[in-house]
Amino acid sequence: MKLPVASPGEVRAEAGELFQQHRGPLSLALSLHVIAAALGLAGPFLLGTMVDAVANGTSTTRIDVLAATLAACILAQALFTRAAVRRSLVLGEKVFAELRETFIARILRLPLSTVERAGTGDLIARTTGDIDALARTVRFAVPEILIAIVTTVLTLAAAILTGPFVAAGAIVGGPLLYAGTRWYLNRARQGYLWERAAYATLDGTVTETVDAARTIENLGLAGVRVRRTESDLAEAYATERRTLFLRSVWFPTAELSYVLPVAATLAWGAWLASAGWATVGQVAAVVLYMVQIVDPVDRLVSWLDELQVGTSSLARVVGVAKVPDDREPTGAAPDGEDIHADDVRYAYVDGQDVLHGVSLELRPGERLAMVGPSGAGKSTLGRLLAGIHPTRAGRVAVGGVELVALELDQLRREVVLVTQEHHVFVGTLRDNLALAAPSASDDELRQALDAVDAREWADALPDGLDTVVGSGGHSVGPARAQQIALARIVLADPHTLVLDEATSLLDPRAARHLERSLSAVLHGRTVVAIAHRLHTAHDADRVGVVEEGRISELGSHHELVEHGGAYAKLWESWHGRSPT
Ligand code: ADP
């Protein structure tokens, strides 16, 4: 499953709303740009007037006044441009910061099941590449395009006002520029996408080769990898050639279309002047306007390309908001600590249920072990009981309230899934613990550490609770990381825990040590243990056997052994082999 991408309409709506929200500062920045551009237009006009003045043999004082006015205009233009650029940059940063915050908020609200199904790669690409592309667009492309449009329109208008007949000569550049740019833009998108994909593949190959260097050496795969890298390089080279070819056609066309109006207005203007239809000054002014218009048009055209990239990134960023929420908190409070699952079904892939109507009632305070073959659905059921995934059909409720109807922080005070995936966040030890209980006092944090047997370790840290841990900070081994995770559970204090022992990567010594911490955390709580070792089952109050998405047997260890079903067979084969 892929994360959704917003439609062009939705992107337009989002962009429109952004413009709407910042209308005030945006109009201010634009007005400043208009004034600056207008001041810039005085140059050719004044120069044209000077040309006419000289041609007509006017006094030098008039020329001096014109020259002084020109200097003043240039100075004023510089000042207004500075203010305008400053305003637009500040606005761009502000809009981008808001976009990023909205995006982060949207990502944090994403249903976990969606993230798991879509994979994290897409999400990471959107938070890095797409946000970067968007930053360029918001910071530079949008302001540059707005300024370029304003400047182009004003310059054209000034040229027409100064010498309407002369300016008509400029038309020749239009069709060429239009045709060239269309040709380019139609092909560029595809070309750049291909280029980026080729480099992504090359990156992947090189990274993989470095990561697996030992394996490659052991298996004598160096030659294979080199050939693979070479073919990736060849592909990247081909894509570069392609986009270079596109640019090599487009750039000269664009350049030509900029020069043409200058030459055309000059030749055409000279003829008009000689025929008495225009003054030499008018021709000079219009030709200068044509020279001046090259810069904004060039910028406009080149940023258009960037704008396309930005729009497609915005579509991917906005798309994240289209994921429907899978929880509907109602504010209802559970009445009791009993958890019931009723006829629960779940599918990772539409139409392929992996749980086929499971019903289960957890008795407060009991320890229930779930056993069964790998792939039977134990972990999935565990996640449903902990409210990680909403059910596809049926319901899981605590104290009569469905898990999806609880606010997340409320849900975490009822039931928590404990896995051996644990993460130490970059920050102080206090921050790491307080995630679970933001209002806990230092004493409470220490008690929680005490409960999981990590108090001494924490007290011996260089700055105690203020020690920075996580990547780049004080290094925390896997066993300590697990203890921190367990201390978080003590702080969240849920009455029910779902324990997924799926992957034990810890060395046995650490495991034994941790088992003590763990049993302290489990004490006094209802526990569903997804068991991969049968002695967990033996010690449990009840055992549930999960087979092919159903609970096939449920009862105490002794009952099930007596019953002589699947569990009895498992136990027999395991017990026969094991010394304990
Ligand atoms: P168990 O914990 O008993 O080994 P699981 O609950 O992990 O079983 O898996 C039950 C079924 O669901 C399996 O067929 C497995 O392939 C499938 N499954 C588990 N996780 C996912 C997932 N993230 N996406 C798709 N299918 C999954």
Describe what this molecule looks like in 3D.
The protein has 580 residues and is an alpha/beta fold. It has 2 domains: 315 residues, ABC transporter type 1, transmembrane domain (ABC transporter transmembrane region fold, Up-down Bundle); 237 residues, Rossmann fold (3-Layer(aba) Sandwich), CATH 3.40.50.300. The chain is 66% helix and 11% strand. It has a 6-stranded mixed β-sheet, with helices on both faces. A 4-stranded antiparallel β-sheet has the order 2-1-4-5, with helices on one face. The radius of gyration is 35 Å and the shape is elongated. The mean pLDDT is 86. The site of adenosine-5'-diphosphate has 11 residues, from helix 11. Adenosine-5'-diphosphate binds next to helix 11. It is a multi-pass membrane protein.
